[in-house]
């Protein structure tokens, strides 16, 4: 027997007469049919989104995809700029010539080339993966980006814990650059930029230039007992012409006489003071860069989940057909 509900709320058993007080125009809907329809509807409602929710989800995914594409495109341009700068520096110095190949491994421009190449390849992978919704490319992009974020966080922790050793490393690097001032154009450029920008001379003080074989007071030649022009208080004659000899003989002067010609303080102290004065800005830049990378990682993960969901829906559709 199949039990039905009458219009007036009376239970009806198919095959039996209607009760006397039942309405003759009642409509019967079988209980089995109701339960069957509700089960089908429940299963379908779990599988498919409502039209409005589906449109909202598609719009959100569309925006996230093109935010990911735009950010990767911006960093691709930055990577290409770094790569171009590094290659330009190597070519302008003729670093690939036969006599300079031996010192190519220590050329600072190689760092720009390496970072630019890695950044460009990584961001191009993200761009193509976002536009094409390619699961493999987005997975590679997310794994590499996660590794880079973890490496940066680890480097920041190590740098904070080894501040003393970093100071010793900077001092050793500065003295090495000073000793190779005339022989290495890169070292010379970096040293001049630091001394000019921070208005300093030497590592600890201006007398550190004794380490240079050309500026040492025991060296022959006109550069004996001298310092580079980047140490001078006013290296420009009449405000226009760079006077490369303004530091000649400065190491022979006492501090009172030398202070009117050159900067007396060393660059290590100036670097330390500059970091302390701009610690807020440095922290903000670090946090923003890490934040951008983490947000990019979250967006990539969302797109990967969406691609997997679409594939699962496509497989279910094939099974039903």
From TrEMBL:
- For this protein, what is any one GO molecular function term? enzyme binding
Keywords in UniProt for this one? Answer: Cell membrane, Disulfide bond, Glycoprotein, Membrane, Transmembrane, Transmembrane helix
Q: How is this protein positioned relative to the membrane? A: Multi-pass membrane protein
The record's GO CC annotations read: plasma membrane
Q: Where are the transmembrane segments?
A: 66-88, 109-131, 137-162, 281-304
Where is it mainly found? membrane
Q: Which CDD domains match?
A: oculospanin_like_LEL
Q: Where in the cell is it found?
A: Cell membrane
Which domain of life does the UniProt lineage start with?
Eukaryota
Q: Does the keyword Disulfide bond belong to this entry?
A: yes
Q: Does the keyword Transmembrane apply?
A: yes
The UniProt family comment states: Belongs to the tetraspanin (TM4SF) family.
The protein's job, in short, is:
Part of TspanC8 subgroup, composed of 6 members that interact with the transmembrane metalloprotease ADAM10. This interaction is required for ADAM10 exit from the endoplasmic reticulum and for enzymatic maturation and trafficking to the cell surface as well as substrate specificity. Different TspanC8/ADAM10 complexes have distinct substrates.
How it assembles, according to the record, is: Interacts with ADAM10.
Give the protein's recorded name: Tetraspanin-10
